[in-house]
Design a protein that fits this description.
Shape: globular
Strand content: 35-45%
Helix content: 10-25%
CATH architecture: Roll
Structural class: alpha+beta
Number of strands: 9
Radius of gyration: 14 Å
CATH superfamily: 2,3-Dihydroxybiphenyl 1,2-Dioxygenase, domain 1
Number of helices: 2
């Protein structure tokens, strides 16, 4: 359904350092800078950050979350730890199991340096 996700940033250098470390924990190669944007590409999609084209400050989406698939609980925990180590802040409950509707998920939430809400999600086998 999705080809890419793009969020705003006010500091490309800080965003590159943050997301290279964060997404690296999930096996994503370092981002490539293209003028006012950075792209992290995989076989399953593209994640990108951009300085807003209209010249206004980037702001986060209230109620919005960008979720990344984690192959394991350890990968989700590494994602969370890398985010905190590179300027992110924790939000929601601590990383852990969430259950509902017959699904068991391991989820780790945090916010990037610009306030965007991120999540690493691992679907725990039944």
């Amino acid at each position: 359904m999705f080809s890419h996700i793009m969020i705003g940033t006010n500091d490309l250098d800080k965003a590159k350092t943050f997301y290279d470390a964060l997404l690296g924990t999930l096996g994503v190669p370092p981002g490539r800078v293209d003028r006012h944007r950075i792209f992290w590409r995989t076989k399953t999609g593209t994640f990108s950050v951009t300085k807003p084209i209209n010249g206004q400050a980037a702001t986060f989406a209230n109620g919005g979350t960008t979720g990344f698939a984690a192959d394991s609980v350890d990968a989700a925990n590494a994602f969370h730890a890398a985010g905190l180590a590179h300027g992110g802040t924790t939000c929601e409950d601590p990383p852990g199991i969430r259950e509902g509707s017959g699904v068991k998920l391991y989820i780790a939430y945090l916010r990037d340096p610009d306030g965007n809400k991120l999540c690493a999600l691992h679907r725990v086998p039944a």
